[in-house]
Specification:
Strand content: 15-25%
Radius of gyration: 17 Å
CATH superfamily: HIT-like
CATH architecture: 2-Layer Sandwich
Largest sheet: 5 strands, antiparallel
Number of helices: 3
CATH class: Alpha Beta
CATH topology: HIT family, subunit A
Number of domains: 1
Structural class: alpha+beta
Number of strands: 5
Helix content: 25-40%
């Protein structure tokens, strides 16, 4: 299944050139053309699925099984000792292309990318209520 208006579907189909680093029957990985850091790689399922929540479990399992191999290759090629694996799921989470994709971001001490993660203390009553609400939806 593809979406004719999707830039990632066009990349997978070879209609738009990319710096492909991996391809098999299920997934496609390529360098991001607007990298946050050197080696910024995108991993996408070949079939078009807009978000993680809308992706079939078998597709998620197949793509997820390939992520460690691709990430290890990115680390080896860039010499980075660590990486972030990010998924922006929906426009409110900064997903700019409506095709599920994983960002592999190689990280080095002192690089220029800063992921801000401000924390707050979880209220125990509110935490229990929220955990119960999530469990009820599963």
């Amino acid at each position: 299944m593809t979406d004719s208006g999707c830039i990632f579907c066009k990349i997978v189909a070879g209609q738009i050139p990319s710096f492909k680093v991996y391809e098999d029957e299920v997934c496609f990985a390529f360098l991001d053309i607007g990298p946050i850091v050197d080696g910024h790689t995108l991993v996408v399922p070949k079939d078009h699925h807009a978000t993680l929540a809308g992706t079939p479990a078998e597709t998620m399992a197949a793509v997820s099984a390939r992520l460690p191999k691709i990430a290890q290759a990115v680390l080896a090629a860039t010499g980075a000792p660590a990486f972030h694996l990010l998924v922006n799921n929906g426009p409110e989470a900064m997903q700019s292309v409506g095709h599920l994709h994983f960002h592999i971001l190689p990280r080095r001490s002192g690089d220029s990318y800063h992921l801000s993660w401000p924390t707050k203390k979880l209220d125990m009553g509110a935490g229990k209520a929220l955990a119960d609400a999530i469990k009820a939806k599963l």
